[in-house]
Amino acid sequence: MEMKVQEITVSLGRKEKRKILDSVSFDVREGEFLSLLGASGAGKSTLLKVIAGITVQDSGAIIFDGQAIDDLAPHRRNIGFVFQDTRLFPNMNVEENVAFPCKMAGMSRKKRLDHARHLLECVQLAGFGERQVTSLSGGQQQRIALARALAAQPRVLLLDEPFSGLDEDLRDDMRSLLLRLHRDFGTTTIMVTHDAVEALEMSDRIVYISKGCVLQDGSPPELYAQPQTKEVAACFGDCSTLEGTVRDGVFSVAGLELAAESIADGAAVAVIRYQAVSLRKAAKEGDREPSQEGMAAYQATRKPLHIRCSVYRGDIHLARVDVEGQTLTVPSSSSFGPGMAVDVIVDAEGCFIYSL
Amino acid sequence: MKPLQARRIRQRITPYLLVTPTIILVGVFVYGVVNGVLQGFGIMPFLGRTELTLDYYIEALNRRDLIASLNYSLYISLTSSVLALIGGIVLSAALTRVQASRRRQLLNIQIPLMTAHTIVVLFLVSLFAGSGLFPRLLFWLGVIDDVGVFPSIIGGASGWGIILVYLWKEIPFVAFYTATIMMHVSSRYGEAAETLGASSLRSFFSVTLPLCKGALTKAFLIVFAFSFGAYEVPFLLGPTLPKALPVLAYLEFQNPDILNRSYAMAINGIMALICCIAALVYFLVLQKERKERKTDE
Q1: Does A29 touch chain B if contact means CB atoms closer than 8 Å?
Q2: How close is the nearest chain B Cα to the Cα of A178, in Å?
Q3: What is the CATH number of domain A3-230?
Q4: Of the four listed, A125, A186, A309, B226, which is most buried by Cβ atoms within 10 Å?
């Protein structure tokens, strides 16, 4: 099923209206796995609730296969919803939970229980049907919630941070399971997440939302390699953010100079990913190489910078370089002592500059 | 005394000082109950009676009007409790759907809770008694031929007046007792059910209501025990015969012969036994809920 989200605006609050979503628009193609990515409080879950019909928007439209569904109550939209806290019904056993949407659709008891058993096999929980939901682990409960959401063959599957309550190793298993189910069932899927790596791994497309607005909409490689804003560039983690100024296509702060072509002169911010930056002991004044603009990697320091401290992180050390009170974090195989003078080598591919 | 030792002593004493008022109150209550129970068994040391006897219980149970009184009390309390439960569920469900702030909603339903029963009796008598506003209005509209045709609120065997007075307080009580849990269940599981294809009504009956079963059972038991043991409303509005059990006990208690008090206490003992059964069921429901909560954790 194809879906359009058209200029959705939602405001909350009685006296002082606060915009939670501000004219949000994007399309979802048939069978696509789309992630709504953004920080907590960005409005992602509210948008999911608008699509589900739980929250009513102030303006805008939700369109399923060319037809606006805004006047339909949630139970008439034929959606599957997986909540972060699973919300399995404690008054029903596993089988009855999975069969619940089929019961609501009027399926006979035998048929719906057979269907529930088949779905339990799909989520690798065959034989769990008679158990009480409260006796299951978090991962098992989330699998049941997935099976339940898929039971009525929904037109769109909505997932609200489904794995955020799970341990890291369980999350990996659940991601694989979800991708397999998506491949097998082909259901159009929208997943809310604040984990950028999760969005990269799982999605066909990512819509980045911040403060109720869409900042960027594109494929995972597009968002990762060509982030359009500082926030999108920084969301993948392991990066430093430095404020400085741009003049004649060069961003500079405290002797650090970065190529900033096509950025207007004035205050700017640079997002530098850990893997795009390295250190070496500062060269003597006469041996210092000039910046080589246009090259993939170049020495970015006109004068040496100094190490503030170095922290151990298992396989690497993270050196914190003092940049006029700001911090540039650089991974390194060996530890640098505090106060040591260093030069910084920057790879242009992992360095993004934006006007402020 | 060293400062550290003084602090330790203060820490040990404080909890006991804090529970002292409660202990005094509970002590007075327990003294009253034990005294009443002993009197039911004929023990009244201040009259020189110290021998335990079942005579008063046997006499009370052999009384011809006791079964009728017991049945009448059970009828009043069960009918009013069931109706209060239904009304409370409807009011609670309505509150969960209203968008007003939670505190305001709960405050609104506390108004009937704060009104004394005797005030409600006066209010209903002025509305529904033979010369009351409602029968006169019906007569004026031509619905009834005479104000006397309207079923009497005072002394009627159906006890509809007593039931109505209880409902005034018990419906909001049930709603007040269950609204918070129902709001929580509805916003959590009801919302999930609706995204899975259940209409609001089906979601309410298949998910919300079953999950509020414990709170509803407890609310029912409280209002049942109260209406079964309460005396003033059936005394004011009840029929001459059969008398509600608490009224019967009160009249025996008021007998000028002080020895009759044992007899009144025996009737009270029968009432207390039924209320204890309700309390036991309440305790069992509570235990079940605690067990379920532990499993959830």
Answers
A1: no
A2: 19
A3: 3.40.50.300
A4: A125
